[in-house]
Amino acid sequence: MTQDFDIQSVAIVGAGAAGLTTLFELLHTKKDGSTTITYDSNGEIDQSKINNADPAFTKIVSFEQNSQVGGIWSPSFDDPEVVPQDLFDTEKYDDPWVLKPRTSVPREFSEAGQDYTYSKPLVTGDTGSHGTNWAKSGIYRHLFSNVPGRYLRTSFIPYRQRRPSDSRLHPLVTNYEITDELLSFTERFDLQRYIRLNSEIVEISKVNNKWKLTVKETVGDKIRWYTEYFDGVIVSTGHYSIPYLPRLPGLSQWNAKFKSSVFHSKSFREPSIFKDKNVLFVGTGLSGLDILQYAFPIAKSVTVSRSVNKEEIYPWLSKAAVSDGINVKPHVTEFKPDDNKKIIFEDGTSIENVDYVIFSTGYHWHYPFLNEKDTGISVLTAGHKKVPDGSSMVDGLFLNIFAIRDPTLTFNGVTLTPLKWPSFEITASAIAGVWTNRAQLPSPQEQIVYSNRKKKDVGQNLVYHYYPPGFFKDYVEQLRGYLPNGRDPSDIYDTNHLDDLKASFTVAEKLFYQYKGGKIPITETVEAL
After folding, report:
1. What is the per-residue pLDDT across 431-450, written as a single tens digit (0 to 9) for each?
2. Does the global pTM surpass 0.90?
3. 9-76+101-135+175-242+364-494 falls under which CATH superfamily?
Protein backbone atom coordinates (compact mmCIF):
# COMPACT_ATOMS: atom_id res chain seq x y z
CA MET A 1 0.00 0.00 0.00
CA THR A 2 1.37 3.40 -0.95
CA GLN A 3 0.43 6.73 0.53
CA ASP A 4 0.49 10.00 -1.38
CA PHE A 5 0.86 13.13 0.70
CA ASP A 6 -0.59 16.53 -0.04
CA ILE A 7 1.29 18.62 2.49
CA GLN A 8 1.50 22.31 1.81
CA SER A 9 1.42 23.87 5.29
CA VAL A 10 3.91 22.76 7.93
CA ALA A 11 4.33 23.58 11.61
CA ILE A 12 7.75 23.08 13.19
CA VAL A 13 7.71 22.89 16.99
CA GLY A 14 11.00 24.34 18.20
CA ALA A 15 13.68 26.61 16.71
CA GLY A 16 16.83 25.08 18.12
CA ALA A 17 19.48 23.46 15.95
CA ALA A 18 17.10 20.71 14.77
CA GLY A 19 14.21 23.09 14.13
CA LEU A 20 16.31 25.61 12.20
CA THR A 21 17.87 22.83 10.13
CA THR A 22 14.41 21.49 9.31
CA LEU A 23 13.14 24.94 8.38
CA PHE A 24 16.01 25.52 5.96
CA GLU A 25 15.64 22.09 4.37
CA LEU A 26 11.91 22.47 3.75
CA LEU A 27 12.26 26.00 2.39
CA HIS A 28 14.58 24.61 -0.31
CA THR A 29 12.52 21.59 -1.32
CA LYS A 30 10.58 21.82 -4.59
CA LYS A 31 7.15 20.40 -5.44
CA ASP A 32 8.69 17.77 -7.68
CA GLY A 33 10.64 16.30 -4.76
CA SER A 34 13.98 17.83 -5.68
CA THR A 35 16.16 20.27 -3.77
CA THR A 36 17.60 23.67 -4.60
CA ILE A 37 20.44 23.17 -2.13
CA THR A 38 23.70 23.28 -4.05
CA TYR A 39 27.31 23.72 -3.03
CA ASP A 40 30.21 25.67 -4.51
CA SER A 41 33.72 24.36 -5.18
CA ASN A 42 34.61 24.89 -1.51
CA GLY A 43 31.77 22.67 -0.38
CA GLU A 44 29.77 25.57 1.02
CA ILE A 45 26.18 26.52 0.22
CA ASP A 46 26.01 28.35 -3.10
CA GLN A 47 23.67 31.12 -2.04
CA SER A 48 23.34 32.42 -5.62
CA LYS A 49 21.65 29.20 -6.76
CA ILE A 50 19.38 28.12 -3.91
CA ASN A 51 16.35 30.28 -4.66
CA ASN A 52 13.24 28.11 -4.73
CA ALA A 53 10.74 29.32 -7.33
CA ASP A 54 8.47 26.30 -6.94
CA PRO A 55 8.35 25.45 -3.22
CA ALA A 56 6.74 22.22 -2.08
CA PHE A 57 5.55 23.82 1.15
CA THR A 58 3.76 27.09 0.72
CA LYS A 59 3.43 27.84 4.43
CA ILE A 60 6.02 26.99 7.07
CA VAL A 61 5.83 28.31 10.62
CA SER A 62 8.33 27.52 13.34
CA PHE A 63 7.05 27.97 16.89
CA GLU A 64 9.64 28.72 19.57
CA GLN A 65 8.61 29.24 23.20
CA ASN A 66 11.77 31.18 24.08
CA SER A 67 12.46 34.79 23.16
CA GLN A 68 15.38 33.80 20.91
CA VAL A 69 16.21 30.97 18.55
CA GLY A 70 18.82 28.39 19.44
CA GLY A 71 17.18 25.97 21.86
CA ILE A 72 19.78 24.70 24.33
CA TRP A 73 22.31 26.98 22.61
CA SER A 74 20.31 30.05 23.63
CA PRO A 75 21.87 30.56 27.06
CA SER A 76 20.22 31.74 30.25
CA PHE A 77 23.35 31.93 32.34
CA ASP A 78 22.01 33.87 35.31
CA ASP A 79 18.53 32.45 35.95
CA PRO A 80 18.49 28.65 35.74
CA GLU A 81 15.31 26.67 36.29
CA VAL A 82 15.20 24.38 39.34
CA VAL A 83 12.66 21.87 40.62
CA PRO A 84 10.50 23.93 43.02
CA GLN A 85 9.76 22.66 46.51
CA ASP A 86 6.04 22.26 45.87
CA LEU A 87 6.86 19.64 43.23
CA PHE A 88 9.26 17.88 45.59
CA ASP A 89 6.44 17.81 48.15
CA THR A 90 4.26 15.78 45.78
CA GLU A 91 6.76 12.90 46.11
CA LYS A 92 6.19 12.44 42.38
CA TYR A 93 8.98 14.67 41.14
CA ASP A 94 10.22 11.79 38.97
CA ASP A 95 7.02 11.94 36.92
CA PRO A 96 7.26 14.18 33.83
CA TRP A 97 3.53 14.92 34.00
CA VAL A 98 4.06 16.37 37.47
CA LEU A 99 7.09 18.39 36.39
CA LYS A 100 5.37 19.65 33.24
CA PRO A 101 1.63 19.04 32.94
CA ARG A 102 -0.29 20.18 29.90
CA THR A 103 -0.81 23.93 29.96
CA SER A 104 -4.41 24.87 30.77
CA VAL A 105 -6.26 27.13 28.38
CA PRO A 106 -8.67 29.86 29.53
CA ARG A 107 -12.28 28.77 30.03
CA GLU A 108 -13.60 31.17 27.39
CA PHE A 109 -11.14 29.78 24.85
CA SER A 110 -12.82 26.37 25.11
CA GLU A 111 -16.37 27.60 24.80
CA ALA A 112 -18.35 26.13 21.91
CA GLY A 113 -18.63 28.33 18.86
CA GLN A 114 -15.52 30.33 19.59
CA ASP A 115 -12.83 30.42 16.93
CA TYR A 116 -9.69 32.34 17.81
CA THR A 117 -7.09 32.75 15.08
CA TYR A 118 -3.60 34.20 14.77
CA SER A 119 -5.02 37.48 13.45
CA LYS A 120 -7.94 37.47 15.91
CA PRO A 121 -6.72 35.81 19.12
CA LEU A 122 -8.16 35.70 22.60
CA VAL A 123 -6.09 38.17 24.62
CA THR A 124 -5.75 37.69 28.38
CA GLY A 125 -3.58 39.05 31.12
CA ASP A 126 -0.51 37.14 32.20
CA THR A 127 -1.49 35.61 35.53
CA GLY A 128 2.03 34.31 36.10
CA SER A 129 0.71 30.98 37.40
CA HIS A 130 2.24 28.78 34.72
CA GLY A 131 4.53 26.52 36.70
CA THR A 132 7.94 25.74 35.22
CA ASN A 133 8.16 25.46 31.44
CA TRP A 134 11.67 23.98 31.45
CA ALA A 135 12.36 26.00 28.31
CA LYS A 136 15.59 27.57 29.55
CA SER A 137 18.95 26.25 28.46
CA GLY A 138 21.16 24.21 30.76
CA ILE A 139 24.48 25.48 29.42
CA TYR A 140 26.85 27.46 31.64
CA ARG A 141 29.68 29.87 30.91
CA HIS A 142 32.46 27.31 31.24
CA LEU A 143 30.82 24.73 28.97
CA PHE A 144 32.67 23.46 25.93
CA SER A 145 31.60 20.76 23.49
CA ASN A 146 32.28 17.05 23.83
CA VAL A 147 32.36 16.45 20.06
CA PRO A 148 34.37 18.31 17.39
CA GLY A 149 33.20 21.62 16.03
CA ARG A 150 33.17 20.03 12.58
CA TYR A 151 30.16 17.93 13.65
CA LEU A 152 28.38 20.71 15.53
CA ARG A 153 27.19 22.23 12.30
CA THR A 154 25.19 21.27 9.24
CA SER A 155 26.25 21.54 5.61
CA PHE A 156 24.46 24.90 5.57
CA ILE A 157 26.96 26.33 8.08
CA PRO A 158 30.55 26.70 6.84
CA TYR A 159 33.21 24.94 8.90
CA ARG A 160 35.61 27.38 10.50
CA GLN A 161 38.55 26.20 12.56
CA ARG A 162 38.48 28.70 15.37
CA ARG A 163 41.91 28.03 16.87
CA PRO A 164 45.25 26.42 15.92
CA SER A 165 45.41 22.63 15.75
CA ASP A 166 47.90 22.58 18.62
CA SER A 167 45.72 24.65 20.95
CA ARG A 168 44.49 23.07 24.15
CA LEU A 169 40.82 22.90 23.14
CA HIS A 170 40.97 21.94 19.45
CA PRO A 171 38.97 20.24 17.90
CA LEU A 172 36.37 21.05 20.58
CA VAL A 173 34.58 24.41 20.65
CA THR A 174 33.00 26.68 23.24
CA ASN A 175 29.28 27.18 23.75
CA TYR A 176 29.70 30.80 22.64
CA GLU A 177 30.98 29.68 19.26
CA ILE A 178 28.08 27.28 18.70
CA THR A 179 25.51 29.92 19.64
CA ASP A 180 27.18 32.44 17.34
CA GLU A 181 27.06 30.02 14.40
CA LEU A 182 23.33 29.39 14.86
CA LEU A 183 22.48 33.08 15.16
CA SER A 184 24.63 33.93 12.13
CA PHE A 185 22.99 31.13 10.11
CA THR A 186 19.52 32.41 11.03
CA GLU A 187 20.41 35.95 10.02
CA ARG A 188 22.26 34.99 6.84
CA PHE A 189 19.25 33.19 5.40
CA ASP A 190 16.59 35.46 6.92
CA LEU A 191 14.96 32.54 8.74
CA GLN A 192 13.58 34.76 11.50
CA ARG A 193 10.60 35.75 9.35
CA TYR A 194 9.28 32.19 9.53
CA ILE A 195 9.66 31.94 13.31
CA ARG A 196 7.20 33.00 15.99
CA LEU A 197 9.00 33.53 19.26
CA ASN A 198 7.52 33.32 22.77
CA SER A 199 5.01 30.84 21.37
CA GLU A 200 4.26 27.67 23.33
CA ILE A 201 2.36 24.84 21.66
CA VAL A 202 -0.27 23.82 24.20
CA GLU A 203 -2.03 21.08 22.27
CA ILE A 204 -1.88 19.29 18.92
CA SER A 205 -4.88 17.26 17.78
CA LYS A 206 -6.25 15.90 14.52
CA VAL A 207 -9.40 17.62 13.26
CA ASN A 208 -10.88 17.00 9.80
CA ASN A 209 -7.61 15.60 8.46
CA LYS A 210 -5.64 18.62 9.65
CA TRP A 211 -3.41 19.12 12.65
CA LYS A 212 -4.97 21.70 14.96
CA LEU A 213 -2.40 23.58 17.03
CA THR A 214 -3.39 25.53 20.10
CA VAL A 215 -0.84 28.29 20.67
CA LYS A 216 -0.07 30.45 23.69
CA GLU A 217 1.96 33.49 22.71
CA THR A 218 3.37 35.78 25.38
CA VAL A 219 3.58 39.44 24.41
CA GLY A 220 4.74 41.62 27.27
CA ASP A 221 2.18 41.29 30.06
CA LYS A 222 -0.45 39.83 27.73
CA ILE A 223 -1.15 36.34 26.43
CA ARG A 224 -2.48 35.73 22.92
CA TRP A 225 -4.35 32.41 22.55
CA TYR A 226 -5.23 31.07 19.12
CA THR A 227 -5.55 27.96 16.97
CA GLU A 228 -4.01 27.29 13.60
CA TYR A 229 -4.28 24.34 11.20
CA PHE A 230 -1.48 22.58 9.32
CA ASP A 231 -1.12 19.62 6.98
CA GLY A 232 2.09 18.40 8.62
CA VAL A 233 3.85 18.80 11.97
CA ILE A 234 7.53 18.33 12.81
CA VAL A 235 8.34 18.11 16.52
CA SER A 236 11.86 19.42 17.11
CA THR A 237 11.78 20.09 20.84
CA GLY A 238 14.94 18.20 21.72
CA HIS A 239 15.72 15.98 24.67
CA TYR A 240 17.41 18.29 27.17
CA SER A 241 14.56 20.25 28.69
CA ILE A 242 12.78 18.40 31.50
CA PRO A 243 15.25 16.96 34.04
CA TYR A 244 14.82 13.49 35.47
CA LEU A 245 15.33 13.12 39.22
CA PRO A 246 14.98 9.66 40.81
CA ARG A 247 12.42 9.46 43.61
CA LEU A 248 14.39 8.76 46.79
CA PRO A 249 13.28 8.59 50.45
CA GLY A 250 14.01 11.82 52.28
CA LEU A 251 15.02 13.85 49.24
CA SER A 252 12.06 16.24 49.35
CA GLN A 253 12.60 16.88 53.08
CA TRP A 254 16.31 17.43 52.47
CA ASN A 255 15.60 19.96 49.74
CA ALA A 256 13.13 21.79 52.00
CA LYS A 257 15.59 22.02 54.89
CA PHE A 258 18.73 22.83 52.90
CA LYS A 259 17.50 25.13 50.17
CA SER A 260 19.50 25.32 46.93
CA SER A 261 21.67 22.37 47.98
CA VAL A 262 20.05 19.86 45.59
CA PHE A 263 19.89 20.42 41.85
CA HIS A 264 19.99 18.71 38.49
CA SER A 265 23.03 19.31 36.28
CA LYS A 266 20.77 21.45 34.06
CA SER A 267 20.63 24.01 36.87
CA PHE A 268 24.40 24.28 37.42
CA ARG A 269 25.94 27.64 36.64
CA GLU A 270 28.87 28.60 38.87
CA PRO A 271 31.65 26.30 40.21
CA SER A 272 32.69 28.64 43.03
CA ILE A 273 29.77 27.34 45.14
CA PHE A 274 31.75 24.13 45.74
CA LYS A 275 34.68 25.77 47.51
CA ASP A 276 35.45 23.90 50.76
CA LYS A 277 32.19 21.91 50.47
CA ASN A 278 31.36 18.21 50.58
CA VAL A 279 29.79 17.39 47.22
CA LEU A 280 27.90 14.31 46.00
CA PHE A 281 27.39 13.65 42.30
CA VAL A 282 24.58 11.22 41.48
CA GLY A 283 25.33 9.85 38.02
CA THR A 284 28.61 10.07 36.12
CA GLY A 285 27.65 10.78 32.54
CA LEU A 286 29.05 13.62 30.48
CA SER A 287 27.24 16.43 32.27
CA GLY A 288 28.10 15.14 35.73
CA LEU A 289 31.81 14.79 35.01
CA ASP A 290 31.85 18.14 33.22
CA ILE A 291 30.81 19.75 36.50
CA LEU A 292 32.93 17.45 38.68
CA GLN A 293 36.10 18.58 36.93
CA TYR A 294 35.49 22.11 38.21
CA ALA A 295 34.36 21.04 41.69
CA PHE A 296 37.15 18.62 42.54
CA PRO A 297 40.11 21.02 42.97
CA ILE A 298 38.24 23.37 45.30
CA ALA A 299 35.82 21.08 47.16
CA LYS A 300 36.56 19.59 50.57
CA SER A 301 35.46 16.16 49.26
CA VAL A 302 33.86 14.71 46.14
CA THR A 303 31.76 11.54 46.15
CA VAL A 304 30.09 9.93 43.17
CA SER A 305 27.11 7.58 43.28
CA ARG A 306 26.88 5.31 40.24
CA SER A 307 25.92 1.84 39.10
CA VAL A 308 28.62 -0.63 40.07
CA ASN A 309 30.93 -1.39 37.11
CA LYS A 310 28.83 0.81 34.83
CA GLU A 311 30.24 1.48 31.38
CA GLU A 312 29.57 5.07 30.37
CA ILE A 313 28.91 6.23 26.82
CA TYR A 314 32.66 6.80 26.25
CA PRO A 315 35.30 4.54 27.87
CA TRP A 316 37.30 7.46 29.26
CA LEU A 317 34.29 8.59 31.28
CA SER A 318 34.14 5.25 33.08
CA LYS A 319 37.77 5.64 34.17
CA ALA A 320 37.43 9.31 35.07
CA ALA A 321 34.43 8.62 37.30
CA VAL A 322 36.50 6.42 39.61
CA SER A 323 39.84 8.24 39.31
CA ASP A 324 42.11 9.12 42.21
CA GLY A 325 40.64 11.15 45.02
CA ILE A 326 37.00 10.47 44.20
CA ASN A 327 34.98 8.59 46.81
CA VAL A 328 32.96 6.04 44.80
CA LYS A 329 29.62 4.73 46.08
CA PRO A 330 26.75 2.65 44.66
CA HIS A 331 23.16 3.93 44.32
CA VAL A 332 21.66 6.18 46.98
CA THR A 333 18.89 4.56 49.06
CA GLU A 334 17.98 7.34 51.50
CA PHE A 335 18.53 10.97 52.46
CA LYS A 336 18.50 11.71 56.21
CA PRO A 337 18.53 15.50 56.64
CA ASP A 338 18.07 15.37 60.42
CA ASP A 339 20.91 12.94 61.03
CA ASN A 340 24.08 14.97 60.39
CA LYS A 341 23.06 15.47 56.77
CA LYS A 342 23.61 11.78 56.13
CA ILE A 343 23.14 9.99 52.81
CA ILE A 344 22.91 6.18 52.80
CA PHE A 345 23.90 3.91 49.90
CA GLU A 346 22.65 0.50 48.84
CA ASP A 347 25.73 -1.27 50.25
CA GLY A 348 24.88 0.07 53.71
CA THR A 349 27.66 2.66 53.79
CA SER A 350 26.96 6.35 54.25
CA ILE A 351 28.48 9.83 54.13
CA GLU A 352 27.66 12.80 56.35
CA ASN A 353 27.72 16.60 56.26
CA VAL A 354 26.95 16.73 52.54
CA ASP A 355 26.65 20.33 51.32
CA TYR A 356 25.63 19.84 47.69
CA VAL A 357 23.96 17.04 45.72
CA ILE A 358 24.11 17.24 41.92
CA PHE A 359 21.98 14.85 39.89
CA SER A 360 23.38 13.98 36.47
CA THR A 361 20.54 11.59 35.73
CA GLY A 362 19.34 12.52 32.27
CA TYR A 363 16.17 14.03 30.88
CA HIS A 364 12.62 12.98 30.13
CA TRP A 365 11.18 12.48 26.69
CA HIS A 366 7.96 14.40 27.22
CA TYR A 367 5.37 15.77 24.81
CA PRO A 368 2.52 17.22 26.90
CA PHE A 369 0.97 18.79 23.80
CA LEU A 370 0.41 15.41 22.09
CA ASN A 371 -2.13 12.66 22.77
CA GLU A 372 -1.63 8.99 22.06
CA LYS A 373 -5.11 8.58 20.51
CA ASP A 374 -4.30 10.82 17.54
CA THR A 375 -0.60 10.11 17.29
CA GLY A 376 0.18 6.62 18.58
CA ILE A 377 3.20 8.16 20.30
CA SER A 378 4.06 7.17 23.85
CA VAL A 379 7.11 7.09 26.10
CA LEU A 380 7.87 3.59 27.37
CA THR A 381 9.37 2.83 30.75
CA ALA A 382 12.67 0.99 30.56
CA GLY A 383 13.08 -2.40 32.17
CA HIS A 384 11.07 -2.85 35.35
CA LYS A 385 10.83 0.85 36.20
CA LYS A 386 7.50 2.33 37.24
CA VAL A 387 7.68 5.66 35.42
CA PRO A 388 9.53 6.95 32.35
CA ASP A 389 12.99 8.30 33.09
CA GLY A 390 16.21 9.29 31.35
CA SER A 391 16.61 5.75 29.98
CA SER A 392 13.18 5.58 28.30
CA MET A 393 12.37 5.41 24.59
CA VAL A 394 9.81 7.08 22.35
CA ASP A 395 7.48 4.44 20.91
CA GLY A 396 5.37 4.64 17.76
CA LEU A 397 8.05 5.99 15.41
CA PHE A 398 9.60 4.53 12.28
CA LEU A 399 13.34 5.26 12.00
CA ASN A 400 12.96 7.68 14.95
CA ILE A 401 11.17 10.07 12.59
CA PHE A 402 7.74 9.16 11.24
CA ALA A 403 4.70 8.50 13.43
CA ILE A 404 3.59 5.05 12.28
CA ARG A 405 -0.07 5.82 12.90
CA ASP A 406 0.05 9.08 10.95
CA PRO A 407 3.29 10.04 9.16
CA THR A 408 2.11 13.62 8.66
CA LEU A 409 3.45 13.88 12.22
CA THR A 410 7.24 13.60 12.38
CA PHE A 411 10.10 14.13 14.84
CA ASN A 412 13.58 15.56 14.40
CA GLY A 413 15.98 15.07 17.31
CA VAL A 414 14.96 11.68 18.68
CA THR A 415 17.95 9.96 17.09
CA LEU A 416 20.84 9.98 19.57
CA THR A 417 24.40 10.01 18.31
CA PRO A 418 27.62 11.99 18.81
CA LEU A 419 27.01 13.06 15.19
CA LYS A 420 23.90 14.89 16.31
CA TRP A 421 23.82 17.76 13.86
CA PRO A 422 24.32 15.59 10.76
CA SER A 423 21.42 13.51 12.12
CA PHE A 424 19.27 16.66 12.22
CA GLU A 425 20.03 17.38 8.59
CA ILE A 426 19.49 13.92 7.19
CA THR A 427 16.27 13.58 9.21
CA ALA A 428 14.94 16.86 7.83
CA SER A 429 15.90 15.80 4.32
CA ALA A 430 14.13 12.44 4.69
CA ILE A 431 10.96 14.18 5.85
CA ALA A 432 11.10 16.51 2.85
CA GLY A 433 11.57 13.59 0.47
CA VAL A 434 8.70 11.54 1.86
CA TRP A 435 6.28 14.43 2.18
CA THR A 436 6.84 15.43 -1.48
CA ASN A 437 6.21 11.80 -2.53
CA ARG A 438 9.77 11.51 -3.81
CA ALA A 439 9.90 8.23 -1.87
CA GLN A 440 7.37 5.95 -0.20
CA LEU A 441 7.47 4.64 3.34
CA PRO A 442 6.92 0.92 3.96
CA SER A 443 3.39 -0.06 4.97
CA PRO A 444 2.44 0.58 8.63
CA GLN A 445 2.52 -3.18 9.20
CA GLU A 446 6.10 -3.37 7.91
CA GLN A 447 7.09 -0.43 10.07
CA ILE A 448 5.65 -2.12 13.16
CA VAL A 449 7.50 -5.35 12.35
CA TYR A 450 10.74 -3.38 12.01
CA SER A 451 10.15 -1.57 15.31
CA ASN A 452 9.29 -4.75 17.21
CA ARG A 453 12.34 -6.54 15.85
CA LYS A 454 14.60 -3.71 16.96
CA LYS A 455 13.01 -3.63 20.43
CA LYS A 456 13.77 -7.34 20.74
CA ASP A 457 17.37 -6.77 19.67
CA VAL A 458 18.27 -3.74 21.83
CA GLY A 459 15.44 -3.46 24.37
CA GLN A 460 12.71 -0.91 25.01
CA ASN A 461 15.04 1.80 26.25
CA LEU A 462 17.16 4.74 25.20
CA VAL A 463 19.55 2.48 23.27
CA TYR A 464 16.74 2.01 20.72
CA HIS A 465 17.47 5.54 19.48
CA TYR A 466 21.25 5.47 19.84
CA TYR A 467 23.76 5.21 17.00
CA PRO A 468 27.46 5.27 18.01
CA PRO A 469 29.82 6.78 15.41
CA GLY A 470 30.58 3.37 13.93
CA PHE A 471 26.90 2.62 13.37
CA PHE A 472 25.68 6.05 12.27
CA LYS A 473 26.63 5.26 8.67
CA ASP A 474 24.10 2.40 8.77
CA TYR A 475 21.38 4.84 9.79
CA VAL A 476 22.41 7.18 6.97
CA GLU A 477 22.08 4.31 4.50
CA GLN A 478 18.60 3.52 5.81
CA LEU A 479 17.55 7.09 5.05
CA ARG A 480 19.37 7.51 1.74
CA GLY A 481 16.42 6.38 -0.39
CA TYR A 482 14.05 8.91 1.19
CA LEU A 483 16.05 12.05 0.41
CA PRO A 484 14.89 14.58 -2.20
CA ASN A 485 16.40 14.34 -5.66
CA GLY A 486 19.73 16.11 -5.63
CA ARG A 487 20.40 15.50 -1.94
CA ASP A 488 23.46 13.30 -1.36
CA PRO A 489 24.28 11.94 2.11
CA SER A 490 27.96 12.65 1.41
CA ASP A 491 27.11 16.36 1.50
CA ILE A 492 25.44 15.90 4.87
CA TYR A 493 27.59 13.33 6.64
CA ASP A 494 31.29 14.12 6.40
CA THR A 495 33.16 10.83 6.65
CA ASN A 496 36.54 12.35 5.79
CA HIS A 497 37.20 13.73 9.26
CA LEU A 498 35.95 11.04 11.61
CA ASP A 499 39.42 11.02 13.19
CA ASP A 500 38.36 14.35 14.72
CA LEU A 501 35.94 12.37 16.87
CA LYS A 502 38.72 10.21 18.28
CA ALA A 503 40.84 13.29 18.83
CA SER A 504 37.99 15.01 20.65
CA PHE A 505 37.69 12.15 23.15
CA THR A 506 41.43 12.37 23.83
CA VAL A 507 41.28 16.13 24.29
CA ALA A 508 38.22 15.96 26.55
CA GLU A 509 39.91 13.34 28.73
CA LYS A 510 43.10 15.36 28.98
CA LEU A 511 41.20 18.51 29.90
CA PHE A 512 39.24 16.61 32.56
CA TYR A 513 42.40 15.59 34.40
CA GLN A 514 43.95 19.03 33.97
CA TYR A 515 40.91 20.73 35.49
CA LYS A 516 40.49 18.06 38.15
CA GLY A 517 44.17 18.29 39.10
CA GLY A 518 44.08 22.07 39.32
CA LYS A 519 46.52 22.48 36.44
CA ILE A 520 44.05 24.75 34.69
CA PRO A 521 42.57 27.30 37.11
CA ILE A 522 38.79 27.32 37.12
CA THR A 523 38.92 31.10 36.74
CA GLU A 524 40.43 30.58 33.28
CA THR A 525 37.53 30.35 30.88
CA VAL A 526 37.64 28.15 27.83
CA GLU A 527 37.64 31.29 25.70
CA ALA A 528 41.35 31.52 26.56
CA LEU A 529 42.15 27.87 25.85
Report:
1. 999 999 999 999 999 999 99
2. yes
3. FAD/NAD(P)-binding domain (3.50.50.60)
